[in-house]
Structures are given as C-alpha cells and as structure tokens.
Amino acid sequence: MDSLHTTESAYWKAEAERLAGDNVRLQAENAELRARVSELEGQIGALTEKVTTLAKLVFGTSSEKSKPVEPRRGKDYITGEKRPRGQQPGSPGHGRRDYSALETVEVIHDVPDNERICSGCGAPYAAFGEETSDQIDWQVHIVRHRHRRPTYRRTCKCQTLGMLVAPVPAKPIPKGMFTSGFLGRLVVEKYVLGRPLERIVAALSNDGFEVSKGTLTGALKALSDLLEQLDAAIRERNAKSAHLHIDETSWKVFEAVADKAGNRWWLWTFLGPDTVVFLIDPKCSTRVVAEHLGIDIDAGSLEPGRQLLISSDFYSVYQSLGALEGVDPLWCWAHIRRYFIRASDAHQELRSWTTSWLARIGSLYVAHRALSVCEVQSPEHVRATADFAAALQAMDTVRKAEASIRRFTLGS
C-alpha cells in the first residue's frame, strides 16, 4: 500500500513539474506573440497611412482651389427669387470695349438723290451730320507673292556685265515657299494656340490653299534650325538668373533609347524673371539641373560672387542644390500645406492641429496678396508689410513652441 502511494505521489509530482514547465513555455510564447501582434499593428498603421496618402494623391483632386458657389440657372442663390438672364445690374463689368485700333474700312450708306427732296415743296434736304455704327469682320487672306525681276541686256560692246537683274529676294528658308509672315503665323497656330497640323491644314484648305501636312512639318523643322541661336541665348540668360522657379513632371516619350527602360521621361521647367526654359530629359536627377545652370556639383559651391535663389518643392534634387554654398532654397508654401493635409488624412486625431496650421498659412497668403497690390511706400503698403510680418511671426512662434514640446517628449 505504501509503495502504491509513493508511486502515485511521484507521478503527480512529475505531472505538476511538467505542467509548470508548460506554463512557463506558454507564458513565453504568449509574450512573444503579444510582441509580434504589437509589431504587426504598427506595420498595419504605417501601411494604412501610406495607402491613405497614396489614394489621396492618385484619386484626389489635382487642385486645392476652392470652387465658387454656382447659382441655379434662373434663380438667385441667396434669395431663391427668379432673376433675369445675363449680367446682373450693379455687377462689375468690363465696360464698352475700344476697337479704334483696328483697321477701319468705311462704307457709306446714303439716301438716294431723288429722295433728298421735300415731297411737299421740292426743297432739298440739307446735310445734318451723320449716324455711325460698327461691325467687326473676320477676313483671312491667303496671298501669293510673285516676285518679278526684270532683266536688262547690254546694248554696247564695252567689257562690262552683259545682263542686269535684281538680286533674289531673301527667304527665311532657302528655296522655301513660305514668307516670314506665314511661318510666324504657323508657329503661333501650332505652339501658342496648340492646333494640330491636321486642323491647320484643314483651315488653310477652307481658305483656298491646299497644302500637305508633310510640307508644314518640313517648314517647322527648318524653323527649328533658324531659332537655334535664339534658343541658346534664352537658355544662357535663364541659367544666369538670380532667382529661378524650378519644377519637373513626367513626360511620355515613345522612343527607344539605350539604357532607358520604359517611356517616362521628364519635363523640367525653369522660370526666370524674363525667360522660361523647358527641358525634356530621360532622367530626373540633379545632373539635369546642374548642367542647365552650369553648376559643378562636386565643387560644393557656386562660382565666387554668384548667389542663386531657387523656389521649388522638397524633391531631393532641390535639396541637393540647396546644400551648395551660394544657393538659397525657398520652399513652396503650397507644397508645405499639402504635408499638413496628408498628416490629417492619415491620422484623424491631427485634424484640429492641421486646421490651425492651414488657417495660419491662409493668413500668410492673404497678407502677401495685400502686400503685392499696394503701392510701395504708401500707407497701405506700410500696414500690409506689418500684417505680413505679424503672420510670419505668429507661425514662427507656434513652430518653436511645438518643436520644444516634441524635444521635451522625446527627452522624457
């Protein structure tokens, strides 16, 4: 009996030790799983933030400008009463336009001679001023310029020129058929008004001039060579500007290029005080900007005596340029504003914080607008300058306060 009791006691003791070991193991596994769950929750939060931000970038509106409230047709959107069509009384208008600078062709509409006699007594009517009215006509003339050069032969036996003829008139394109005026109009239609060559050909055909698309294409290519020197001068002046607005966007180019995968190229825009340069390049790198501006990135600074102010977004290319000595970056407030909006989209608890900052940025825009429209040294300009400085100071005060709170939180 004692032996059986001893055996059973040893069994339960061993079972208790096994269960205790399982308990320790399960507690360790539970702690490990809790840590893993916490890690996964953090990853889910980060991914949710990215998805929210990317979804807003892809599917959100491209413009942040507020749209004006449109009244319903025929109704006043405030009172709801029916209103007449067209411009409303009291609303600002452009006034009567002045067309006196247009070429004027006078057409006289006179009363017939036999009707300018009194039907009662036969006395003639006397001139008493006139009434005038204007109409605007739209005329397109396709004109052929035929250059005639009379020739003269020598009538004597002197050893001089046997024949005289005026020189061939100069042409923008050698052996070309178009005048400089035609080519100028073609460039405006194609690149300023953005009309495709097919429509230009159709418009010329409607006006009586049949020409092929290939002929116009050849003329545009020849013009490219003529404008090369002007293009180089514009690029050089732009590159030497003291202040440039720079931006880039993707540009589809369906052309096979060695060591270039895909069709996405880049359109770079350089806006100076009096010039604009557009560059299309396969790469989106600092090299493109540096080559245009004539900057040696490896030198770490601009040439001595040169200062360059760059207005741009936060793209890494502009950050690299901002690190150079002599380059001062001026970050775009519109892009800074979007970072606040994205933070609020991804973290709803930051909505009130974002709203406060958007209000401050809006005040800065209003103050800057008022400053830009005031005459310099006027009382309005002095007040606007003070308002602008106050808006900046308010932003800087809040920025420093929030930065100190963040440092305190991290330090604690």
From TrEMBL:
Metal-binding keyword on record: no
Keywords of the record: Coiled coil
Transposase IS66 central domain mapped to chain residues: 175-384
Coiled coil start-end: 16-50
Basic and acidic residues bias: start-end ranges: 64-84
Chain positions covered by the region annotation Disordered: 62-97
Span of the signal peptide: none
Lineage top rank: taxon: Bacteria
Keyword hit for Coiled coil: yes
Protein name: Transposase IS66 family protein
Organism: Acidithrix ferrooxidans
